[in-house]
Each structure stands twice: as structure tokens, then as C-alpha cells.
Design brief:
The chain is an alpha/beta fold. It contains twelve helices and 21 strands. The strands form four sheets. Strands 2-3-4-5-6-7-8-9 form an eight-stranded parallel β-barrel, surrounded by four helices. A six-stranded mixed beta sheet has the order 18-10-1-19-20-21. Strands 11-14-17-16-15 form a five-stranded antiparallel beta sheet, with no helix packed on it. β4, α5 and β5 form a beta-alpha-beta unit. α1 packs parallel to α3. The radius of gyration is 24 Å and the shape is elongated.
């Protein structure tokens, strides 16, 4: 890379996270790796390490994402979670990509086209987003699917993943009511659950698949302390105690890094940046870092870490960030924007955002550098930039 601002992905940790998840929760047949939004900003290259860990089905949000994956992974099944325009279904069919159907008219139209395609039927269990609410329509599609328009799976997206929320139970009941006239046991894949539900309740007996999203990258459920009312609800409804602690010991694989490229002394009363961005109240030393809001939309004026020590951010520009430093900081020192010393959850709290928004706000102009065993290589806009052996 030419500019020393990049995201480092530890692929050994990523692979091990998947193995830990599957080892602990081994009663599913299908482990979907949700890799939409460029694998939650970890980059498409990370997919090969998810598969090494045990992911046996991938899920994306669009045909564009599915086709990009198909260029590097020829055989693994891919499900598009959102409905695509029917004029492009032939492209999905040609590339062995599974589509989602969420209404009767769409299904009837595809049947007339006689395009051989696999689909998963989406049920609206309460989010009022995509999906069927009519058990009559569900039964109709179930009974009229065939080898050409094959119903491989059925799924829903739960409005709440938390067992502490009554919405979760309502969503499950809605799903059961909407599918009451079909035999779920005769459908190859049934998937309702996702990362957030995995550790919070026993496996649902009606499902054999689970969609793993952000948990794969080291973000499982945060610790929580239910209120007395919630604990009573859990006890009466689920007949078991919900642990406050995660069963899994996962590792974050994502570190956002840069370097110190300039150091300056600033006198009391001098400004830093345009206009009145910052005025020094005393003599200070500053460092210039080569990243800004063109790289990271939710950039904030909190801290970065250098040599395991926090330093205050005072100015952000489109391409540059300025921090106040001390004599311990040297030119070309490594800087962690977030990762090991500043957790992504901490960074998200500073930005008043959730982890999903924070990660996906890092733009594609920031290269991803992948580390696996002793090999490090970089992915940029136009593919592999460099490869080197870390032993030398």
C-alpha cells in the first residue's frame, strides 16, 4: 500500500471463531455465513476463511454481492436474502444462486418463465419488511413448487433476537401460525435464528439452519443484567435460567490502523486546522495521521492508541486527523484507530452508533490486509496488491 492506513484482518482468529461456534452449537445442519455489505466490512476475501471454519452456505443481500462471491467461490451455495427483480432470475439460475420469494404473484410469474431455480420462501413474522403473512399463500407456493422452481428452504427474520423481549416469542408464534398448513419437516432447510439468538435460548426444534452474521467476526452478545420483571418472564416462559455471560470466547479479527506521518510543535494561542477548529490553550505537540472522514464516516474526536497509550483527537478533516501527543510518540509509529486496545464497541459508543453502522462506514478506499499463518496480503480496489511471508 502507498498510504499506511488500512484494516488488518486476522484470518486465523476468524477461522477459529467459526470452529468455536459450531463446536459449541453443533445441532444445526446448515450454518449460513451472512456476508452482506462486503462481509460487514471485513472484505470478500474473508469468505474463504469462513468456509475453512465450517460455514456451508453463504447469504447476501443482493445479486451483485452474490455474483462477486461466485467469482472466487464456485461451489458453495449462496442465498440472496432480498427479493430480486424477476428479469434477473435467469442470471441467478445460471450462477447457481438461490433466490428469495416473498409473494404469490412473483412465484406465479417465475413458474411461467420455466427457469430452473432454487428458492427460499420468506415469512413475515412481525417485522413488516419482506415476507408472506398469509398461510393460504404459503400453502399454495408449497404445493405448487416443483423441480424447476424448487422450494429448498423457508425462513424469517425475527423482529427481536433477545429472549428477554416478548416480541421474540410473538415472532415464533406468528411463524408457526403462518406455516401451519404445510409440513416443515419436508422442506430441506428451515432457518429462523441468527447471531443474536444463538446464546440466549435453546435451539428451536422447527429449524435446522442458523444465519451467523456479526458473531463470526468476534461480536457475540454483550453481557446484560435482566430486570426482575424480565427474569420472571424468562422463568415462566422458557423454564430455564438465562446466563448473563457468553458461552463463547471469540476474538475480534478487525483492527483499523494507520501511522504517524508528521509531528509539529504548536504554541499557546495558535490554531490547528481551518478557522477556529482548535486553538491551543498551552504549548502542545501534535501528530498528523493519514485518515479522515472520507475513510471512516463515523470518525469522532475521542482517542487513538499508540504504544498502548491513548491520545486525544482534536481535529478531523476529509483525509487527515490531528492528535495531541507527548514525547513518547515518534514519527512513523503505528496507530490503532480501534481494534485491540480500543474495542470496536467502545469506538461505537463514542460515535453513538451500533457496531454494524460503525464497521460498514469504513469506505472501500481503505485497503484490507489479511493475515493467515505466516502470510500477509493486501486487497485493494483492483485485487491483490502484494503478498509477503512474515517469516522473512
Amino acid at each position: 500500500m502507498y498510504r499506511k492506513t488500512y484494516v488488518e484482518i486476522d484470518c486465523n482468529k476468524l477461522e477459529n471463531n467459526i470452529k468455536k461456534i459450531i463446536n459449541e452449537f453443533n445441532d444445526y445442519k446448515y450454518y449460513f455465513g451472512v456476508v452482506k455489505a462486503n462481509a460487514y466490512s471485513h472484505g470478500i476475501e474473508s469468505i474463504k476463511y469462513l468456509i475453512k471454519g465450517g460455514i456451508n452456505y453463504l447469504a447476501v443481500s443482493s445479486l451483485e454481492e452474490a455474483l462477486e462471491i461466485r467469482e472466487i467461490e464456485k461451489n458453495i451455495p449462496i442465498l440472496i436474502l432480498e427479493v430480486i427483480d424477476e428479469q434477473y432470475v435467469s442470471i441467478a439460475s445460471k450462477n447457481n444462486i438461490t433466490i428469495t420469494i416473498d409473494n404469490k404473484d412473483y412465484f406465479d410469474s417465475l413458474k411461467k418463465k420455466e427457469i430452473k431455480i432454487k428458492f427460499h420462501l420468506k415469512i413475515d413474522s412481525g417485522m413488516n419488511r419482506f415476507g408472506l403473512k398469509s398461510n393460504e399463500d404459503v400453502k399454495y407456493i408449497y404445493e405448487n413448487s416443483n423441480d424447476y422452481c424448487f422450494m429448498e428452504g423457508i425462513f424469517t427474520h425475527l423482529a427481536s433476537g433477545s429472549v428477554n423481549n416478548p416480541i421474540f416469542l410473538n415472532s415464533i408464534n406468528n411463524f408457526k401460525n403462518i406455516t401451519k398448513d404445510i409440513d416443515l419437516n419436508k422442506i430441506p432447510i428451515v432457518h429462523l435464528e441468527r447471531s443474536l439468538t444463538l446464546e440466549q435460548h435453546e435451539k428451536l426444534d422447527i429449524g435446522n439452519g442458523i444465519r451467523l452474521g456479526i458473531i463470526m467476526y468476534g461480536f457475540n452478545k454483550p453481557d446484560y443484567n435482566p430486570t426482575l420483571k424480565r427474569r420472571l418472564f424468562n422463568k415462566l416462559t422458557f423454564k430455564k435460567t438465562i446466563s448473563n455471560k457468553s458461552k463463547l470466547n471469540l476474538e475480534t479479527v478487525f483492527t483499523f490502523k494507520t501511522k504517524v506521518i508528521e509531528i509539529k510543535d504548536v504554541k499557546k494561542g495558535e490554531i490547528v486546522g481551518y478557522g477556529d477548529m482548535y486553538t491551543a490553550n498551552e504549548d502542545i505537540k501534535i501528530a498528523i495521521l493519514p485518515y479522515g472522514f472520507a475513510d471512516f464516516s463515523f470518525i469522532n474526536k475521542n482517542y487513538v492508541s499508540i504504544n498502548n497509550k491513548l491520545y486525544k483527537i482534536i481535529v478531523n478533516y476529509m483525509d487527515i486527523t490531528t492528535i495531541v501527543i507527548d514525547d513518547d510518540v515518534k514519527l512513523f509509529d503505528d496507530v490503532e484507530i480501534f481494534g485491540n486496545n480500543i474495542s470496536i464497541r467502545k469506538e461505537a459508543s463514542w460515535a453513538n452508533q451500533n457496531v454494524y453502522k460503525l464497521l460498514t462506514s469504513i469506505t472501500d478506499r481503505v485497503p484490507r490486509v489479511y493475515k493467515h499463518n505466516n502470510i500477509e496480503y493486501e486487497i485493494k480496489y483492483r485485487g491483490v496488491e502484494s503478498c509477503k511471508n512474515l517469516e522473512h
